[in-house]
Amino acid sequence: MTVVLDHLAIGTPTLTDGWELFGGVLGGTWVYGGDSPGFWWGQLEFAAGPKIELMTPTGGPDAAFLERFLATRGASPHHFNFIVTDIEATLARIRALGIEPVQVNLSNPNWKEAFLHPRSAHGVVIQVAQQGDSPRVAPPRELPEPGPPALFDLIEHHVGDLGGATRLFREALDGRLEAGADDTAELTWPGGKRIRLVREDGLPLGGSLHHVRFTRAGGAFSGQDSERAGLLAKRLGLTVELARP
Question: Which CATH number does the domain 3-131 belong to among 1.20.120.520, 3.20.20.70, 3.10.180.10, 3.40.50.720?
Answer without folding.
Answer: 3.10.180.10
